[in-house]
Prior knowledge:
There is one protein chain. The protein is of the alpha+beta class. It has two domains: 3-159, Ribosomal Protein S5, domain 2 (2-Layer Sandwich); 165-289, Alpha-Beta Plaits. The protein is 35% helix and 29% strand. The protein contains ten helices and twelve strands. The protein has helices at residues 68-79, 102-117, 124-134, 138-143, 178-189, 201-209, 212-218, 224-230, 234-243, 265-278; strands at 3-20, 26-45, 50-54, 86-91, 146-150, 155-158, 165-171, 220-221, 248-251, 258-262, 283-289, 295-298. The structure holds cytidine-5'-monophosphate (C5P). The site of cytidine-5'-monophosphate has 11 residues, from β2 and α5. It is an enzyme of class 2 (transferase). ATP binds at residues 95-105.
Amino acid sequence: MSVTVRVPAKVNVQLAVGGARPDGFHDLANVFLAVGLYDEVTATPADELRITCTGPGADQVPLDRTNLAARAALALAARHGLDAAVHLHIAKDIPVAGGMAGGSADAAGTLVACDALWGLNTPQGELLDICAELGSDVPFSLVGGAALGTGRGEQLRPLDVGGTFHWVFAVADGGLSTPAVYREFDRITEGTEVPEPLASQELLDALAKGDATALATALSNDLQPAALSLFPSLADTLAAGRAAGALAGLVSGSGPTTAFLVRDAESAAEVAESLLASGTCRAARTATSPAQGATVVRGR
Ligand code: C5P
């Protein structure tokens, strides 16, 4: 008997970053939008905790206890006095180390899968507490949809989304380390007064109305200069996507995936084709948002 859970990727339609806090994290106004690119986590009883992984970039995913999915299973088991005797299989489709919360998705998926497999019925509030301990983006992967994340991104307020948004994601050749991008942000902003991060009302209104043109104008990512500084060729990808007819383009989270908001499915296919032909990315994926959070798709 196994349980399989499907978990979406995310794009940050606004990522406002404050100055470094004493604990090294940064206060954020982080507007998360779940997008329909999914990893699947399957939990099966086993003699001991074991992880396997397949899909694009699977060779870069650690299979030991440093994997966020392993830590999620151990944290849930510890809370209930159980042994985490489970085989976790991760079928990856979210770009690895891409700034789309793939690792966070696997952790959230593992919590939901193990909770169902072990028949725990853990209240969602408790699952969200475990998520927040695992990483700043993990709570959002659990709930999906759209949300404003404050604090280090883990305190969530659900947001209304009034329509479907169409995206193209350009997958870069290589990854970026999130801590390294935040360090670069600190270096770039050193000696300047970093303003308090605030959500843009214009952006929240555009989301609520489902207005892609208005959302395109309001997209912003304070980590983009840092990501471009560490990965300069992303500027070429952004230029190629805009030239291909995207309404707007930006670095997704800490990168190096770039996200292009487009008018409709037809435009998405065209922009994806042009991006690939431009030779400025390794792959181009189309997806829509919002998408549902971690959901059991097979098993109990
Ligand atoms: O919370 P998470 O483990 O995903 O964060 C990864 C790294 O990103 C942190 O160690 C920190 O360097 C950086 N970070 C940050 N401020 C945040 C979220 C993450 O500085 N709000």
